[in-house]
Design brief:
Layout lengths: L7 H5 L3 H14 L5 H15 L3 E5 L2 H11 L7 E4 L6 H8 L3 E4 L11 H7 L4 E5 L19 E3 L13 E5 L13 E5 L2 H10 L21 H10 L3 H22 L22 E4 L3 H10 L29 H9 E4 L7 H17 L6
Parallel strand pairs: 2-3, 2-4, 5-6
Antiparallel strand pairs: 1-7, 6-7, 8-9
Helix pairs in contact: 2-8, 3-8, 4-5, 4-7, 9-12
C-alpha cells in the first residue's frame, strides 16, 4: 500500500467545480492584484480568526517580514525566537539587519520555552517571535510591553491571536492552502494594520508617493479566490486532522499493548493542536524512516538542522550544544501522514509498519 505524506488531489477534487468558478470570476474581472477579491478574503479571514484586521500578503515569509518592518525592527535591534523552525522565521529578522537571539525550546511541545525566552531579553530586544510549530500553539510569553509577533504559519485557526500580530502561510501544504504562495498578517491593532498595507505596496500612499521603503508583498486575487473557497472548510479539515491524530494513538496502543517502546514518543496532545504535522520521536529515526520508505509510506523530517547551526548564521557564533533540546529533537523527529483525507486503512498500515520495525529490530533488512 502506498501512503503519501500529503495528497492535495483528494482535497481539491470535491471542490473542483467551485474552484473553477472562483478562478473564472477573477479572470473575467481582469483584476489580478489586491482588489475586491483580496478585500473579501481579508474580511472573511478576520471573522474566522476573530480579529479586527487581516492583511493579505504574498507568502508566509513576507507576512513575517512585513510585520517586523511595520513594528520598526531594524539594525541594532534584537528579536528573541526559537532555533527550531522553518528558515523563514529567522530569515525575516536577518534580512532587516536585526540580530537574532535564540532561546531553547520545550521538549514536549517543540515550541519556544517561555522561561528561556524571558531570560534572553535585553535592553535591545525589539520583539519576540514565538512559533506555533506543527499546529500546536506556543505558550504565551510574558515579557513586559515587548510586542509579540506570532509565527502561526502552521497553525491558522488553532488559537486566538495573543500578540500584536500573527503571521499565516497559505503554502499549498498548510491546513489552509492556496494554489501557490500566499500569506496574511492578522491583528487587532488598526494602526499596525494600516502600516502593513503601506509596507506591502512599496510604501506608496498615495500612488507613486512613497512614505517608506516597503516591498512588493501583495496578495494575488487568484490566490485569494482559492482561499475563499477553502476557508469555510478549515474547521472541518482541522477536526479531521485531530481525529486522525486520535486514531494514530488508538492504533499505536493496540499495536503495542504492553506500552510503547521507550524509544518511541508520540506528540503530546492539547485541545487546540490542529496537527499540520504529526511528529513522532525516536533515536532510530533514520532507520525507521528507511523502513517506512521501503513500504512506500511518505515521511518528512522537520527539521534536520537547527537554525543556530545553519551555515548562513555562522556569524552569530553558536556551536553544537548551545541549545541542546532543539539539537536533540532535530535528530529524533519524524513526521507521519496526517492530512484530513487520509484513509483509516492507510493509517493502520503506517502503524503496522512501525510496529514490525520495532519487532524485528533496526538491523533487519527491509
Amino acid at each position: 500500500m502506498r501512503v503519501p505524506l500529503l495528497d492535495l488531489r483528494r482535497q481539491n477534487k470535491p471542490l473542483e467545480t467551485t474552484l473553477h468558478a472562483a478562478l473564472t470570476r477573477v479572470v473575467e474581472s481582469g483584476h489580478f492584484i489586491l482588489g475586491p477579491e483580496v478585500a473579501a478574503f481579508e474580511e472573511e479571514l478576520s471573522e474566522v480568526v476573530g480579529v479586527g484586521h487581516a492583511v493579505g500578503v504574498s507568502s508566509g515569509t513576507d507576512a513575517l517580514l512585513a510585520a517586523l518592518m511595520a513594528l520598526g525592527v531594524g539594525p541594532g535591534d534584537e528579536v528573541v525566537t526559537t532555533p527550531y523552525s522553518f528558515f523563514a522565521t529567522v530569515g525575516a529578522v536577518v534580512r532587516l539587519g536585526a540580530r537574532v537571539v535564540f532561546a531553547d525550546i520545550d521538549e514536549s511541545s517543540f515550541n519556544l520555552d517561555p522561561v528561556a525566552a524571558a531570560a534572553a531579553v535585553t535592553a535591545r530586544t525589539k520583539a519576540l517571535l514565538p512559533v506555533h510549530l506543527f499546529g500546536r500553539p506556543a505558550a504565551p510569553l510574558a515579557c513586559g510591553d515587548l510586542p509579540v509577533v506570532e509565527d502561526a504559519a502552521q497553525a491558522v485557526g488553532a488559537t486566538e491571536v495573543r500578540g500584536r500580530a500573527a503571521c499565516y502561510s497559505f503554502f499549498p501544504s498548510k491546513n489552509l492552502g492556496a494554489f501557490g504562495d500566499a500569506g496574511a498578517v492578522v491583528t487587532d491593532d488598526a494602526a499596525l494594520a494600516e502600516r502593513l498595507r503601506l509596507f506591502r505596496q512599496h510604501g506608496a500612499q498615495p500612488k507613486y508617493v512613497h512614505q517608506v521603503v516597503g516591498g512588493n508583498f501583495r496578495l494575488d486575487a487568484l490566490q485569494a479566490a482559492v482561499l475563499r473557497v477553502k476557508l469555510p472548510r478549515l474547521a472541518s479539515w482541522s477536526a479531521a486532522r485531530r481525529a486522525n491524530a486520535a486514531r494514530y494513538r488508538a492504533l499505536f496502543a493496540e499495536a503495542f499493548r504492553g506500552g510503547l517502546p521507550d524509544d518511541l514518543i508520540l506528540p503530546e496532545d492539547t485541545p487546540s493542536h490542529i496537527y499540520n504535522q504529526f511528529v513522532i520521536r525516536t533515536r532510530q529515526r533514520d532507520a525507521l524512516r528507511a523502513a517506512l520508505t521501503a513500504q512506500e509510506i511518505g515521511t518528512e523530517i522537520y527539521y534536520p538542522l537547527p537554525l543556530h547551526l545553519q551555515p548562513c548564521f555562522a556569524s552569530l557564533g553558536h556551536r553544537q550544544g548551545d541549545f541542546p533540546v532543539a539539537e536533540r529533537l532535530a535528530k529524533e523527529s519524524l513526521a507521519l501522514p496526517i492530512f484530513p483525507e487520509l484513509f483509516e486503512e492507510e493509517q493502520a498500515f503506517v502503524v503496522e509498519t512501525v510496529a514490525r520495525f520495532y519487532e524485528r529490530g533496526e538491523a533487519k533488512a527491509w
